[in-house]
């Protein structure tokens, strides 16, 4: 049995009390209590008239939360109690009215608070808004053939349930204050994402919902989350977890996808901005998404975010294929490098593509933009002798450096290699650069063959034959080591 502290009175008649009895609410005698019987029945007993109301059954544990703390950091002031039984964890909310424990609304449990069935709850942290439990894990040891059982603590937040409950009751200010209390906690971003996801799922699954309600619960949820910097990550994360057919409903409440992308771009949150590209393609069209992706590609290259840049290149080339109505030929499929065909098509491919595709000009213009950006960045790294970044750039974006160098060599523009490996460089500096060259060549022997063939074919590069011999020996020994 647990006493339930009386709810704070707000009625004006409460002021008509004598000064002798004007004590704090915590000193008042309770007028209700919860009773959990041995058979699992949980009931609410009125201590004034003796009436008892059965609430639920098959309950193992319960925790009274209302009025248990005067600390302003308590996150569960809007909860009367929690219980745990065969249905899992359940939250009981007080309802607004003269008697919050007799309203029908109070008996409606929150169906979205699902606690892990493999975790047994042990307690409640009111100031953090989480339920703490314990689970049993298996571990194996060489000392015995039998598995060992290791208890492991687990925690689950109820913040998203509390926030949704407040928003449903039009208590937006209280919900904001509650969220502010938990802003610095590690589970805060996950709670906001779970809140938006559950609200959005409920709205799209309810076909007979009142769409004319203004503002809707989804709009109020978005307005709440907008107050926090996690908003952009939360919205796009929820979008990626839901069907793209419903994205229009989500972003009608959350804001235009291009505006959210632009805000992330201006804040230099490039990873988050990249997540909006597919949403923009779905809602705003391919040309708009391609324009945003090209801007983001240039920015990620400037920041040396080559893995992210590679993802953007692949997206841009996939979207470029949408202009091509026919399937690629076998010769196209046999391109040795991912970007070889798209960035450096031969004259034969160009003629055949023009003949069979009326939209080639649009495709070529689109792919040429990607080509120019990658080539410009490669030239920038070469001119700055940034060999380490060049290696990362090639790996991340799959840029076909071999064909690019061959093309540069055809115009006598092999100055990058001559500058970085000139004989008058110091031995230590040259040795360091040679190590970088080896790291670059050992991942692509085609590049090494193009490099060595170019130096050997030009008489002006005869002074580099010693360097070629040294690099060749090291690369050969490296191949032998890998095979062994």
From TrEMBL:
Alphabetical list of InterPro entries matching this protein: Ric1 (IPR040096), RIC1_C (IPR009771)
Location of the RIC1 C-terminal alpha solenoid region domain: 160-324
Domain of life: Eukaryota
Region (Disordered) location: 1-26
This protein's record includes keyword Oxidoreductase: no
One Gene Ontology cellular component annotation held by this UniProt entry: cytosol
Biological process terms in GO annotation: intracellular protein transport; retrograde transport, endosome to Golgi
Subcellular location: Membrane
Sorted UniProt keywords: Membrane
Entry-linked Pfam families: RIC1
Protein's recorded name: RIC1 C-terminal alpha solenoid region domain-containing protein
Organism annotation: Lactuca virosa
Taxon lineage: Eukaryota, Viridiplantae, Streptophyta, Embryophyta, Tracheophyta
């Amino acid at each position: 049995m647990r006493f339930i502290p009386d709810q704070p009175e707000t009625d004006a008649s409460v002021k008509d009390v004598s000064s002798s009895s004007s004590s704090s609410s915590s000193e008042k005698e309770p007028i209700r209590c919860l009773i959990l019987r041995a058979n699992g029945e949980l009931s609410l007993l009125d201590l004034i008239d003796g009436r008892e109301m059965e609430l639920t059954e098959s309950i193992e544990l319960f925790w009274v939360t209302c009025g248990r703390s005067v600390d302003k950091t308590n996150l569960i002031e809007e909860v009367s109690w929690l219980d745990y039984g065969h249905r899992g964890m359940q939250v009981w909310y007080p309802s607004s009215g003269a008697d919050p424990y007799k309203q029908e609304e109070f008996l409606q449990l929150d169906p979205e608070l699902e606690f892990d069935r493999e975790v047994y709850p042990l307690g409640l942290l009111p100031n953090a808004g989480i339920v703490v439990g314990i689970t049993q894990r298996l571990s194996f040891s060489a000392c015995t053939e039998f598995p060992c059982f290791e208890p492991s603590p687990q925690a689950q937040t109820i913040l998203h349930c509390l926030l949704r409950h407040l928003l449903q009751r039009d208590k937006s200010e209280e919900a904001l204050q509650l969220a502010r209390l938990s802003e610095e906690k590690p589970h805060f971003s996950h709670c906001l994402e779970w809140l938006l996801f559950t609200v959005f799922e409920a709205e799209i699954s309810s076909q007979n919902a009142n769409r004319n309600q203004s503002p809707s619960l989804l709009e109020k949820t978005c307005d709440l989350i907008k107050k926090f910097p996690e908003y952009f990550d939360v919205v796009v994360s929820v979008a990626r977890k839901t069907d793209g057919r419903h994205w229009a409903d989500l972003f009608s409440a959350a804001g235009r996808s291009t505006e959210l992308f632009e805000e992330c771009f201006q804040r230099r949150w490039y990873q988050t901005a990249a997540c909006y590209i597919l949403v923009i393609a779905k809602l705003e069209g391919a040309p708009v998404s391609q324009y945003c992706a090209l801007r983001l590609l240039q920015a990620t290259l400037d920041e040396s975010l080559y893995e992210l840049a590679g993802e953007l290149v692949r997206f841009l080339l996939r979207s470029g294929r949408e202009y091509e109505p026919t399937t690629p030929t076998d010769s196209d499929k046999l391109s040795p490098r991912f970007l070889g065909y798209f960035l450096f098509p031969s004259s034969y491919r160009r003629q055949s593509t023009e003949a069979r595709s009326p939209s080639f000009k649009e495709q070529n213009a689109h792919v040429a933009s990607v080509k120019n950006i990658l080539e410009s960045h490669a030239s920038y790294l070469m001119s700055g002798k940034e060999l380490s970044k060049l290696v990362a750039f090639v790996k991340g974006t799959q840029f076909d450096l071999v064909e690019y160098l061959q093309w540069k060599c055809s115009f006598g523009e092999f100055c990058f290699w001559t500058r970085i490996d000139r004989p008058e460089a110091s031995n230590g500096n040259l040795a360091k650069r040679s190590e970088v060259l080896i790291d670059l060549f050992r991942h692509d022997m085609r590049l090494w063959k193009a490099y060595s063939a170019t130096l050997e074919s030009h008489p002006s590069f005869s002074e580099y034959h010693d360097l070629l011999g040294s690099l060749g020996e090291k690369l050969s020994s490296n191949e032998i080591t890998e095979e062994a």
